[in-house]
Amino acid sequence: MIISWDQYFMGIAHLSSFRSKDPSTQVGACIVNPNNRIVGIGYNGLPKGCEDDVFPWEREGEFLDTKYPYVVHAELNAILNSTVNLENCRIYVSLFPCNECTKAIIQSGITEIVFEDDKYHHTKEVMASRKMLEAAGVRTVRLNEKVRINVEILENN
């Protein structure tokens, strides 16, 4: 079986998401240049130097007791992890980007977003994302089929 470039790069995004310690939402991102070369990978996690077991991963509660003020989203991590100019690149992400990640995507020069899940399409953050992406001329493509990666770690005993 031969997979398409879209399936391949979305698979890399999914594989990256397995690095996330977030118990409720694991997201991965993969940035690809026009020559189909990977130039950035990221997943949602805490900033460098912030220990996963010290900061909260809760979704509900007082703001400072939740994950939201601390977690760096997969898209931003992929942009920050890149070591090349991202002009005319595309980003593969398992979840449609929020407004904050959208700002970074636009500013970095990425011109296409390929995504799978759009479960937050009704939120104000995603509505703002779509408005900015349209204004900036960034193309969005939703994959029709979901790419799934099953990872099994085998220990040598």
Fold and architecture overview:
By secondary structure, the protein is an alpha/beta fold. Helices cover 28% and strands 17% of the residues. It contains 4 helices and 5 strands, in the order αββαβαβαβ. It has helices spanning 5-17, 74-81, 99-108, 124-136, and strands at residues 28-32, 38-43, 90-95, 112-117, 139-142. The chain has a 5-stranded mixed sheet, sandwiched between helices. Helix 3 (99-108) runs parallel beside helix 4. The N and C termini lie far apart (33 Å). The mean pLDDT is 93.
Tell me the layout of helices and strands.
Elements: H1 5-17, E1 28-32, E2 38-43, H2 74-81, E3 90-95, H3 99-108, E4 112-117, H4 124-136, E5 139-142
Parallel strand pairs: 3-4, 4-5
Antiparallel strand pairs: 1-2, 1-3
Helix pairs in contact: 3-4
- Secondary-structure-based class equals alpha/beta
Write down the overall mean pLDDT.
93
- Which regions are unreliable across 5 or more consecutive residues at pLDDT < 50? none
Order of helices and strands: HEEHEHEHE
Number of helices: 4
The order of strands across the largest sheet is 2-1-3-4-5
- Quaternary state reads single chain
Shape label: globular
Gyration radius, to the nearest Å?
A: 16 Å
Helicity level: 25-40%
Count of individual beta strands: 5
- Measured between the Cα atoms of the first and last residue, the distance is 33 Å
- How large a portion of the residues is in β-strands, by DSSP E? 15-25%
Instruction: Describe the main β-sheet briefly.
Output: 5 strands, mixed
